[in-house]
Specification:
This protein is mainly beta. It contains no helices and 12 strands. The protein is globular, with a radius of gyration of 13 Å.
Length: 118
Amino acid sequence: QVQLVESGGGLVQSGGSLRLSCAASGTIFSRNTMNTMGWYRQAPGKQRELVARITSGGNTVYADSVKGRFTISRDIAKNTVYLQMNSLKPEDTAVYYCNKVLPPVWAWGQGTQVTVSS
């Protein structure tokens, strides 16, 4: 079972930037492990939503709400997925998680809190 550890969150003013990291304890991208990884977020009182995904081949897809502001990337050798977040808005405030996109997903990590002040 792969363990996921998210980091890099914090408090930032509107318009600011943060870079999130998701470190996996095992191999998440390999020739035999065609995982599509995603960054999700969950705001208070709302359902968890997928905001960005990246395939093992490096193709990316973004939710409309973050398109043009967020960039997902991965370091295959480090088993790490990143989320560069620019032009942050108060509505981006949430706990951010990473995980596989297709089921069965791995156990969820603790997430990393992102708070954007206006």
